[in-house]
Amino acid sequence: MDSDPIVARLRAAGCVFAEDEAAFIRRHLDDPHDIERAVTSRASGLPLEHAVGAAEFAGAILAVADGVFVPRRRAETLAHTAAAQHPTARVVVDLGCGCGALAASMTTRLPSARVHAVDIDPTSVVVARLNGRRYGFAAHHGSWWDGLPSDLRGRVDLAVGYLPHVPTHEVRHIHADFRAHEPLGAVDGGSDGLDHLRTVLAGLPDWLAPGGRFVTLLSAEQARRIDGEVLARVDGDAVVAFG
Asked: Distance (Å, rounded) from C-alpha 25 to C-alpha 36?
């Protein structure tokens, strides 16, 4: 029997990694009332990060909110690899930023760059702007490239994006907690999962600076069907560069 009451409650609710989740809650919350609220919310099925209001990503601590995509740990490889592709980048953008996890990561890895983030979901943009004030990036509302300031056209040295790339018929396999609390548009990539990637790639000639690159994360199978350079592999996925 668990001696830690929070672990016991989380385990009884079906949380497989109850010890880790209890530690996460205590790491980000101090007030007993906030801890109780988070444990109750998590036990009712709210994703851990939404219950706490925070996410950890590549060394950054980010605000999140119900209805905003939670940054996935496997995308940390995307952050590391993308920054290494253009260490002298002056203008960096995070396309489909969600809470701004990749943008925050870029500000810490490329401190001399101007970093911009964009998302079509207004709730995500509100949260991204909150994180942007902390980490030093600007968040914009709009669809992909069209949501960015026009003066960035032809000047983007490095673009990153954890694009929606789950094929529509596979969305049902995503954990039910996330399906209920994240926007469908943040994961559904169309029939083959590549609809949004095609849109982004179509904008590369207009938005990238000479020598600029766009780096994203795809499934290994998707990477084999797209004409891009595989830079790294992680958990069956591939970090792929274009441009």
From this structure: 10
